[in-house]
Each structure stands twice: as structure tokens, then as C-alpha cells.
Amino acid sequence: MTGIEIVNLNKRWATFDAVKDVNFTVEPGTLTVLLGPSGCGKSTTLRLIAGLDTVTSGTIRIGGRDVTDAPPARRDLAMVFQSYALFPHLSVEENIVFGLKVRRVPADERRRRLNRAVEILGLGPYLGRKPSQLSGGQQQRVALGRAIVAEAPICLMDEPLSNLDAQLRHDMRREIRNIQRALGMTMVYVTHDQIEAMSLADQVILMKAGHIEQKATPEELYLKPATTFAARFIGTPPMNLVGLADGAGGAVVKGTAARMFEGRGEGLLMGLRPEQIRVGEEGMLPVIVRNVEYHGADSILECEAGEENITVRVDGVRPIAVGSRLSLSWEPEAMHVFDRESGFVQPVR
Amino acid sequence: MYRIRTAVTPWLLLLPAAVLLAAFTHFPAVMTFISSTFQTPRGKRPAKFVGMDHYASMLSDPVFVAALKNNAIYALGTVPASIALAMLMAVIVNSAIKGKALLRMSFFLPTVLPMIAVANMWLFFYTPGYGLIDQFLGLFGFHGRNWLGDPETALGSLMVLAVWKEAGFFMIFYLAALQQISPSLGEAAALEGAGRWYFFRRVTFPLLMPTTLFVMINAFINSFRLIDHVIVMTRGGPDNASTLLLYYVYNVAFRYWDTAYASAITVVILIVLALLAFIQFGILDRKVHYK
């Protein structure tokens, strides 16, 4: 099996650094998600791995082999495009075997691979159709089929599900994960959807403005965000970042006297996930409820503590009136402290 | 009342276009056909019905036969050449090369120039002895040649000019079509290792087919329709070596004043063009992929 190593990768357009000093390793047979908002350099990184754009500096190794300057076809990889890149004038079958014909794979071998892909993807009834006669989900399957028949050890996916509706997206996500595991592919998957990233990945690489903000497993990314950006990007609703100030005997929430921990508070932010906060009569931080939003399985409370606002997620419907006074509490490990300036996580004293 | 008005409204909206079409296209076409079955009236002698006589005499008219043959050569030579050239130029100016805007402009320039001006320019190119072409060939030791005055080369010389003039115009259509093709198709093919030629043959060319069909029909019509350069450069000569059908129609109608016979030839041109269009649609339309 084949892994990928990215070392000090840089891509500079005329006036703008699209990718800055990016380093990561994709272990063989695992799925790495490049996650980030649009313009963060995740798609550019993927295109550099594919060889569709040229590297400004840095090294790309696939299976231990330096492919930094190799043409795309010599990198042992398949790619699924956001637009699917299906040839509109060719039938489903011809689309799937297009690459095999280019590579002069013998006809019986072509047939074997086609049959296998068609079986995996359930495309049997559509082989003779043109892409325009297929639904979005079926077109997506054809694009996957093309990646499967290539039998390349590495598969790159550039936002493959962004053109599908929510239900289909969920189904295809599961299917992609199953195919990746079943075929033992090494996969790099680009998305801006945190749920896709969390549910698919063995490793998430969170990017922002061309650099890596954090690389971690989905669990780690959720439980131990390294920066305020990572903290806000993962989770719905996102993590609360509460401004702290110096108070009597330690750090306090701005505008209150509630002591959070010993030491300095000025210039720090306290991170709390809305779902990790408990609501009660007694607690660590007294608040006033300003708004209640009912979502079905849970409710979102907007609370005010001094100068700061805190979002809390509670299960089901709670008879909590707007304007009532409550107290919030949480486990010690639910509290994260970040430097306000740099955004980096700080050890809690 | 309301229902009557709704039934009339669409016809009223169509009326201006219908009047123009009828007055300047359908009525003249029918009149041309009718007058082709009569003798040309002269002086006091009224037009006499002669049926298909004009059509029969065409076959024994050596100038008509020569013009028909010339036009066939002209069309079969210029249409494929200008289409191939147009496609090539479009692919070049659609790629990421330096000076793209300048190239596009220079390829398109011949289209902007009036045919009369272009013909006069090429008249100088073809001038025997000191024309541009002879001067250039002279560098390699070729003797001067009277390109437009020699029956062997007169028609060919006009064809070169026509290809040069038409290709730039067709290039615009191909360029528009090429820009409709998603760049990710090229990238997907590059990942599989498809070379440029393979990609052009298997993907670009088939996706350009709707444009090719459109351009081809227009090119054939143009090859029968545009004769300005014949008038400027050769007047059909020498010895009718470069006479095209429409130029012959013009001569018959307005120099010999045999308008009835000219009408008959015009009807033949129309029938030929209609047949060509039907054949092209019939053969190619099944193979063309429309989005």
C-alpha cells in the first residue's frame, strides 16, 4: 500500500500565497480530510498532489517516490472532481473505461474491472446512458466508478458531494467510506463541511489562509482544539469563546466576579462547548437567560454573563423562561483557554 | 371579446417579421421560379411561357457547366480547409500562451475587413513579378507567375483568399464552443495520461460537432453567395476559369439582360444549397451530441 508525504509545500500565485509551508503524512490505507473555509488552500493542496498545478517549493512523495515534478499520469492516483468531469458525449460505460483505454489496458481486463465497479456502485442499468440522462447521485457514482477501475492506490476527492442534496450526501458519504475501506485505498478528501470531515476521516487537516491550523483525529480536533479557529470551526453551534479579565484571586469572566482559575485573565479567552455546559440552580457561573430556541431534540439557550454571551445546548424542552437567572457548570476538561492575540491554546493553571 | 383578442394577439406579434419575410424572401423566391419558366420579355414582345426550357438549355451551356464545376471545386476546397484552419486557430488561442489577445485579434482581422478591400489587397499580393508572393518566391529562385491570369491557378488563388477570410470568422464560433468545455475534462484526461491529440480526437472534436455542423452549412452557403472577390480580381476569367455560379447569374441578368435564364440558374443554386443542407443535417445530425 502507498502513502503520501507532503514536505514544506508552498504554492505562490502572482501576489498571493495559496499554500504556505504545509507538512503532513497520509498513512497507507487511511482517509485524510483537508478541511477549511473556501480560499484556505485545501483544493490547491489537492491539485498540487495530483500534479494539476506546479509546486512553487517543497516535496511531494507518493509511496516513497518523489513525484514533485512528475506529470499527473505518473503519480499512481485517481481523482474525483467536484464537477465530476464526465465526458458528456460518452456513455456511462465509455466514461468509466476512458482511462483504461488511454492506458491500453487489454479488453478482457477492462471488462473485468468495469464489471467489478458496476457491481460495487449498482450502475448496471445505466451503462448505455449519457451523463445528462442521469441524476446527480448517479453521475457521482460514475465519477467514483472511474476512480475505482483505475485501481490506483491513491484516490483524491475534491468536494465530491457538494452538488448533492442532504439525504444523498449522507448516503454517498457512507458509501465512499465503505469503498475506501473495502479496497484499501489511500484517500485525500477535500471538503468545507465539518460533518463530512468528522464522520469520514482518520485524520483531519484543518487549513486556514494557506497554512495548517491543526492536524488531528476527529476526536482530538473536537476535544482538544489547538486554536480559536479550530475551536469555532468544529461543532454546531460552535464553541463559546468567553473574554476573561483579571479579578480578585484569579481570572474572571469579563464583567463578573466569578473566578474561573488562578492567575492572569486579561488577554485570554475561555472556550466552552455549548453541549458540555450543565444548567442548574448552583454552579460556577451565574447567568441571565436572554433567549431560548427550541430545535426538537435539544434547545439552545442564549445566556448573558457580565459583558459576555454564552450559548448553551440542553436536551429536549426545558421550562426555562427568558430573563430567568441560572448558574452554569462544567467538567474541568471541558474548559479550554486560548490566547486572545495569537489564538493558540494555553495550559490551564 | 377577450378570447378573440387572445387568438389575434400572437398573429399580430408575428406580423412585422412575417411581412418582412414574405416581402423580401418568399415572394421573390416564388417570383424567381415563375419567371424562370417564361422567356425574357423584349421590347414589344411579351413574356412567353416556355416551361422547363431554360433548365434544359443549361446542360448545353458551356459557361454554366464551367461555373458549376468551378463552384463545386471552390466549395469542396474552401469549406474543409477553412473549417480545419478555424479549429486549429481556436485551439491555439484557447490555450494558455503568451500574446493570446494579439493572436486572437490578428486571426479575426480578415473578418472585419470588407471583402472588396481584402480582394484589392490580395490583388497586390498576386501581382506578377513584384507582388508579395512572387517577391517571396523569388528569394528561393522561383520565376514570377501570373497567378490570376493563368487558368491553372486563377481559381486556386481565389480559394486561398476565401479560406484566409472565412477561417477567422469560424474561429470565433469554435472559440466560444471550446470555452464551454469544462477545464476539468482536460484535467481528468491528463490524470489518465491522455495526450493532447488523443484528448482532441476523443473529447474536444466530438464536443465541437454541433458547432462544426452549423459552421459547415454556413460555409457552404457562403461559398455560393460571396463573389465580391471574383468581380474585383478576375471577373471570372481567364476563359471562365474562375467563374462562380452567382457571378454567372449576375452576368446573365445584368450584362446580357436575360433575366429569365438568370432566374432559372438562381433556382438551381437554391435547390443545390437546400440539398446540401439536408444531406449535412441528415448524415451528421445523428452523430452530433447536443448538450
From TrEMBL, chain A:
<keyword id="KW-1278">Translocase</keyword>
<dbReference type="GO" id="GO:0140359">
    <property type="term" value="F:ABC-type transporter activity"/>
</dbReference>
<keyword id="KW-0472">Membrane</keyword>
<dbReference type="InterPro" id="IPR027417">
    <property type="entry name" value="P-loop_NTPase"/>
</dbReference>
<dbReference type="GO" id="GO:0005524">
    <property type="term" value="F:ATP binding"/>
</dbReference>
<keyword id="KW-0547">Nucleotide-binding</keyword>
<dbReference type="InterPro" id="IPR008995">
    <property type="entry name" value="Mo/tungstate-bd_C_term_dom"/>
</dbReference>
<dbReference type="GO" id="GO:0016887">
    <property type="term" value="F:ATP hydrolysis activity"/>
</dbReference>
<keyword id="KW-1003">Cell membrane</keyword>
<feature type="domain" description="ABC transporter">
    <location>
        <begin position="4"/>
        <end position="234"/>
    </location>
</feature>
<dbReference type="GO" id="GO:0055052">
    <property type="term" value="C:ATP-binding cassette (ABC) transporter complex, substrate-binding subunit-containing"/>
</dbReference>
<dbReference type="InterPro" id="IPR047641">
    <property type="entry name" value="ABC_transpr_MalK/UgpC-like"/>
</dbReference>
<dbReference type="InterPro" id="IPR013611">
    <property type="entry name" value="Transp-assoc_OB_typ2"/>
</dbReference>
<dbReference type="InterPro" id="IPR003439">
    <property type="entry name" value="ABC_transporter-like_ATP-bd"/>
</dbReference>
<keyword id="KW-0067">ATP-binding</keyword>
<dbReference type="InterPro" id="IPR017871">
    <property type="entry name" value="ABC_transporter-like_CS"/>
</dbReference>
<dbReference type="InterPro" id="IPR003593">
    <property type="entry name" value="AAA+_ATPase"/>
</dbReference>
<comment type="similarity">
    <text>Belongs to the ABC transporter superfamily.</text>
</comment>
<protein>
    <submittedName>
        <fullName>ABC transporter</fullName>
    </submittedName>
</protein>
<dbReference type="Pfam" id="PF08402">
    <property type="entry name" value="TOBE_2"/>
</dbReference>
<dbReference type="Pfam" id="PF00005">
    <property type="entry name" value="ABC_tran"/>
</dbReference>
<keyword id="KW-0813">Transport</keyword>
